[in-house]
Design a protein that fits this description.
By secondary structure, the protein is of the alpha/beta class. It contains 6 helices and 14 strands.
Amino acid sequence: MAVPSYPLVAKWRQSHDSWVLRFALPTGRKYLGNDPSLPTCISVHHNSSFDEDDKLLKKSYSPVSHPAAEGIFDLLVKSYTPIPGGGVGDAICNLQPGQHLVGKLKSERMVHGSPIISKRWDRIGLVAGGTGVAPLVQIIRIVLDDPTDNTKIYMLSINRYEKDILMRDELDKLAKDHPDQFFVKYSLTGENVRKEWDGYTGRGSADMARQVLPPPSAKDGTQSTMIFVCGTDGFRDMWAGPVARAPPKADGSKGAKIQGPLLGVLKDAAYDASDVFKY
């Protein structure tokens, strides 16, 4: 079966080294995913000119648009200098309107046994490192766009400098539009943070987690919490510990991710592994 392609219809700069790119869906396809209430993820295919025989590279991206967006989806993409075995982000960012992205919809992401996000927990905490904000923005949109969903969301976005904070305008607007339901804080890890900065500094600590994120699920089951962590492998490992993989599948593709034990900052902050999902 041919891998679908999606024409670029618009793009706008998100930061000095990242873009949001809007792609159109093929004719006759209303939504990117099969269920517009569930998060989506697409595996982008790119033939690398750095490798012999134009080696096919694949990289996964979660749209920052709502999965119920009709006819389009938006990707947040950071452009890295192409190197052997890489260059997917750079290739996407260099697309011009009318050119096509080739990619395959990935299967639904199971979060502790179910792909459902809406109205599943009383409180959601989101910990984003850099471009790790992308799949978390989709979760925010799913919850806030549903007037019957009263889940409270607490987000911590961690970046090196202020200029690196991705989706900041969108996040601040969502917090302004939903002042009793969505709360966002920022932390900077770079040097020479301006004196007027009113956010946090550092990559994270148990104290920061306790101040920004919702508390762990209540032992009596009256209040449930889920913390999502997304960023580089090192960022995720520091906050919650590494993920593992099951053995390769029969077709040679990667095995399913295994959450593994909870470690790092969130363990130190007294969360349970059942309260945390690691991307």
